[in-house]
Give the backbone structure.
Amino acid sequence: MCAHVVVAEDDPKQADLVRLYLEREGHHVVVVHDGRSALEEARRGPTQLLVLDVMMPVMDGLDVCRALRVESAVPVLMLTARTGEEDLLLGLDLGADDYLTKPYSPRELVARVRALLRRGSRPLPQSLPPDSATPPATPTAPPPGVLTAGALTVDPRRHEITADGRPVSCTPGEFRLLEVLAAQPGRVFTRAQLLEQLHGIDRYITTRTVDTHVMNLRRKIEPQPRRPTRLLTVYGIGYKLAEEPHGAS
């Protein structure tokens, strides 16, 4: 799939390398070197994907992502030298669809771009007015085959997820990961075990893919993504789904 891609990177050599690899894939690439230009170019269209460096002059990538998400659902692949989970969560909270930490392989970047373009633009979130909050649904017994963990349900047959009674939209990889965890709440899965389950769903897959799925899922199913109570990290081992949320991890 060929697309119009904007690359926002303040390092000219790195920007040219990314442009070269993406153009080899057949994409039309526009390169900019500061955040304000990135936002203007993304608004100008017809941008189908934005490769966005976090550390840029004039306006950083996080501010660009925050401003862009108010008006557009164009996929964003964030490039960052920050490796802390809090920094990565912030980028995903602001609406980034995926991230790569520097230094990265240009071939991996191309694979991530390819995967995001296949996934397509996601719909913008719809918020309810403050005075029209929907009352919580009355709890009912889940149908046979539906996996549950507290107020979280996963229906493999219908490919549906709900959290606290509200529907949750997931990519195929995110759905499969949550399905595996929900089948055995409380069990700790290593990253390698989760990688095994994702083969055939995510074509280009690394342990970083698992971490990205986890952070995206927390953004979707946790009341407070930075203080998860459902999808928990077991440090030094992997992840588990809590049987009943209780307190923050």
Notes: DSSP finds eight helices and twelve strands in the chain. Residues 121-139 have pLDDT under 50 and may be disordered. The first helix runs from residue 12 to 24. The helical segments are 12-24, 35-44, 61-69, 85-93, 106-119, 172-183, 191-198, 207-221.
